[in-house]
Design goal:
FAD/NAD(P)-binding domain, seven-stranded mixed sheet, 13 helices, globular, disordered C terminus
């Protein structure tokens, strides 16, 4: 075949459907599960949808992505929301991001935060540090670092945070002492809104519905229950039976049991790629909150985020997201395990992925999406990149990877 696509998550499905739209039918997707959607699959739980891979929302900023998705799930089937995310801190809930909303805390707490922001390294002209935890203190000040950012990221990643680089943090808004002081005096938020300031979510379904519909459109081009085990670069084959001109890898590179045709140094680099695993757990109780999701930095609470289902979808209750290393199994709860939830932005990851993807591209094998590129991309970003890659493959052009793409720190969307 011309195109062999590994994985029927948002990246693989979007790439394949773009080929389909352009009249290119010589492609096949291999998917290990018995359904499509990857991390964005949904289940019907207690008369409402639950996203088994965590909350996945479609940002409204990219019109090309929206038109692409509306082709299979029309605009009238989506609700538009203004983001309402909160943080549980000091025994109360305040709006996110924290640096724009400390004015919602007591006067005493505001003073504590303002004093530390005023002497944060970035506000004093101190050179930017290279280690992740030091960077948080430098950027946000001691109080935000210790009350929120450090414990919250420990809960998400369950990793030595100084093993993470700082190259991915450039989109974190500047924490200006002047703007923070003004927000406290005027009692309103200043500064840049975080990602998903407005987002779309299906009216009747979970986020997995749009991916299910794409899969239905190209159903004759997907082989389900097919585990990808072996990749032979020289023969351009997968599992010894599928051969293609171009192979599009959207699955984690660590999932290959064997890769033939490359030197051991590349295999060692793949071994050094890190990720975190997340458990999603459903709770039928209703929260007295209008927030779409809530962040919990308290290390005594096992989960790091709550998705308040009844606020953005039908059904009651909420679901939690918990790093596997912190999760305690409860037999009375419905839970879903996601081995590959978030790629970790370790210090050496940009070097690893540049060398790996350059080598693979020499052999017409392309990495795509959260796992093919090992980037913490949201689903709308993945769609955008899949469309572009498909266009370049069919119409020609040079593929460019962004090995240090910044993401929104402390937010898993």
């Amino acid at each position: 075949m011309k195109y062999l696509i590994l994985g029927a998550g948002p990246a693989g499905l979007s790439f394949a459907y773009r080929l389909f739209q352009m009249g290119e039918m010589d492609f096949l997707i291999l998917e290990k599960e018995n359904e499509a959607g990857g991390l964005c699959r949904s289940k019907e739980i207690d008369n409402g949808p639950l996203d088994v891979g965590g909350g996945h929302f479609i940002d409204v900023k990219d019109q090309e992505v929206l038109e692409f998705l509306f082709d299979v799930m029309p605009r009238e089937e989506w609700n538009l929301y203004n983001r309402n995310s909160q943080i549980s801190i000091h025994g109360q809930f305040i709006n996110s991001p924290i640096e724009a909303n400390i004015w919602q805390l007591s006067i005493e707490k505001q003073i504590e935060y303002l004093k530390e922001i005023a002497i944060a390294g970035c506000n004093l002209g101190v050179p930017k540090p290279d280690k992740f935890i030091e960077w948080i203190y430098w950027k946000l000040g001691k109080k935000i670092a210790e009350d929120y950012m450090v414990p919250y990221n420990q809960k998400i990643f369950s990793e030595n945070l100084n093993s993470l680089g700082t190259y991915w943090l450039e989109k974190l808004p500047n924490v200006s002492f002047e703007e923070t002081l003004r927000s406290c005096l005027e009692k309103k938020a200043y500064g840049t809104q975080p990602g998903h300031a407005q987002f779309l979510y299906p009216k009747k379904y979970g986020s997995g519905e749009v991916w299910r519909r794409i899969a239905d459109r190209i159903s004759g081009h997907i082989n389900y229950n097919t585990i990808v085990k072996h990749l032979d670069i020289q023969k351009h084959s997968v599992n010894g039976e599928y051969v293609a001109e171009k192979i599009i890898c959207t699955i984690p590179w660590k999932e290959f049991r064997e890769i033939k045709g490359i030197k051991s140094e590349y295999l060692n680099m793949i071994e050094n790629l890190k990720y975190s695993s997340v458990v999603v757990e459903y709770n039928p109780e209703c929260l007295c909150s209008k927030a779409h999701w809530i962040y919990f930095p308290d290390l005594n609470i096992h989960y790091h985020r709550i998705l308040n289902r009844r606020v953005f979808s039908k059904g009651k209750g909420f679901w939690t997201e918990t790093n596997l290393n912190r999760y305690k199994y409860r037999s009375d709860k419905r839970s879903f395990f996601n081995k590959y939830a978030y790629p970790l932005n370790t210090i050496d990851k940009p070097m690893i992925m540049k060398k790996l993807l350059d080598k693979m591209e020499e052999n017409n094998i392309m990495g795509l999406g959260r796992w093919g590129e090992w980037q913490h991309y949201n689903s709308d970003v993945v769609v955008h990149r899949a469309i572009n890659l498909a266009d370049k493959c069919v119409r020609g052009g040079v593929i460019r990877y962004n090995f240090a793409a910044p993401v929104e720190i402390g937010v898993c969307a």
